[in-house]
Amino acid sequence: MTQVLLLGGTFDAYILSTLLHEAGVQAIYSYAGATQTRRTPALPVRVGGFGGVQGLVDYLSAHHITHVIDATHPFAAQMSANAIAACARLNLPLLSMERPAWQARPGDQWQHVPDMAAAAQALSRSLKRVFLAIGRKQLAAFAGLADEHQFVLRVIDQEGGALPLPASSYELIVARGPFQLADELALLGKYRIDCIVSKNAGGADTYAKIEAARQLGIAVIMVDRPVLEPRTQCQSPQQAMEWLRRQRC
Hints:
7 helices; 12 strands; Cobalt-precorrin-6X reductase; Rossmann fold
């Protein structure tokens, strides 16, 4: 019998969980639990890490998992790497569902960087007001710049402990996407943003800030996605369902 482990935490994963439920597929939805405000998937849910590759191997074996779909965030590189290694060890089919990365268009003022430390180094002193559209996990990379810049932060919820920046150095926005272009234009204007730091998450949910930056001529420091081992990939929940149908034939 098919038993799917869906590694989630993204909106596309939530959509896929609904499709799996509607199709009557036995599946478990797993996410890290980094944020408190989440849509409830229509599947049995587990929360938290697995304890590395061996922990994931043990879980897959104990729960008789036959297929794994990795629908984590494109920057959840460690979880994705663990899934690749664990599935290879058990010879289980693995599918990575990943939205296409954003591509620069005419008018964009992007500076590509490989990681968050490089993004912090790329901030020139002339860029005083910076929108850190990166969540809360990697804010520490910018802690040493608090005297030179004023930051605007946007997070999904207020849980998760103190932020690693001096309170006087940032203004906090609590909101969950998707965000509309008009909203992002208003935000960038209200806070007089000079530069956006963004992960290249892909997809439409958070792209509006990139389009708004293009329209307003605002610089974007774009953190490129981590590079992972080659694996079977798709770009949408519908494609993931088709892959699973082929696997079950």
